[in-house]
Amino acid sequence: MTLYSLLTAAHGRQLLNAHGWPTTLNVQTGDCGDRLEISGVLSHQALSDLLPALASCHGIDAVVLRGLQLLCDIYPLQGTVCGTVCGGKPAVRVSFESFPDVRMMFRQPLCEALQASLTACLTRLDADAETILRLTGAGYEGANIFERETRHFVVVGEVWDALPEDVQPDEALIAAWLHEIFCHGSAVLSVGLVVFQLYGMVRMAELPLEEVIIIRPGMPVRRWLPRQKLAQLADRVRRRVAHAREITASFTS
After folding, report:
1. Cβ partners under 8 Å of residue 213, min gap 6
2. Fewer CB atoms inside 10 A, N or C side of the chain?
3. Helix and strand numbers, DSSP H then E, in the chain
4. Which of 5-19, 51-65, 113-127 comes out lowest in average pLDDT?
5. How far apart are CA 108 and CA 155, in angstroms?
6. What is the pLDDT, as a whole number, of residue 188?
7. In sequence order, what are the residues at sequence separation of 6 or more whose Cβ sits closer than 8 angstroms to the Cβ of residue 33?
8. Pair (112, 97) in one structural domain
């Protein structure tokens, strides 16, 4: 999973919670930020819990609200929702498996309020996803994070898509990353160190950083780059060069 997908889905759940929706809904993303989807089942209890938020923000008046609350008390009402946005305005569908005929007058205002609320979530998520995409690597547009050149080699920091192998972030860590992005404008990156031989730009060695890296605006490389990783990378290059010399030495013996 990419950092973008992980953080965008988590932020989608934050927005759902802020709008009173259950965070058990599925939030799916395209890896390139080209599509967002929120979908799932709205259980009887979740719908009942959501009604006050719908009433306060999306135009359900007191009479209709009371009717819907009574409806939820009497009938095991359950619905499904699916909202998508793909380069335009969100499209939201709401349906119910069954709706009592005697309460059909409440169906339209309920569906309209649910659509308006989920549309608001998707609109905000679509805008925020652009920020997440940029600050999880897309902002570099293929450029290296840093470069250090010697006589024969160049060391670069690359943005890698996948999470570091041993990183399994919990909700608190994911929330901290999102806080860095939205409150500090920090880049939150999975970084790989790579050494190229200048002659022919041969990729000599690479080494992933074991943690997700936080780079706040203006932060120098020395603040976030572990020096021991550079030493490990240099050792790999030395071993490869020594091995190459052993191979080529056979031509002169």
Report:
1. 187, 188, 189, 190, 191, 224
2. C
3. 7, 9
4. 51-65
5. 61
6. 98
7. 4, 8, 129, 130, 133, 138
8. yes
Cβ-Cβ contacts under 8 Å for 150 (sequence gap 6 or more):
none
Under the banding of pLDDT at 50, 70 and 90, the label for residue 14 is very high
Least reliable range by pLDDT among 71-75, 110-114, 209-213: 71-75
Q: Which tokens hold the place of 181?
A: 């992005």
- Alpha carbon 22 to its chain's center: 19
Q: Using an 8 Å Cβ cutoff, are 38 and 200 in contact?
A: no
With cut-offs at 50, 70 and 90, classify the pLDDT of residue 62. Answer: confident
How do residues 172-194 score in pLDDT, each as one tens digit? 999 999 999 999 999 999 999 99
Same-domain pairing of 39 and 130: yes
Say if residue 50 is in the same domain as residue 147. Answer: no
Residue ending a domain, choose from 98, 120, 135: 135
| Residues 89 and 155 grouped into a single domain | no
Q: Write out the residue range of the structural domain in which residue 224 sits.
A: 141-249
Residues 105 and 175 in one domain: no
Instruction: Let me know whether 151 and 131 are in one domain.
Output: no
* Beta bridge pairs of residue 94: 81
Q: Are strands 26-29 and 36-42 parallel, antiparallel or unpaired?
A: antiparallel
Residues 130 and 186 in one domain: no
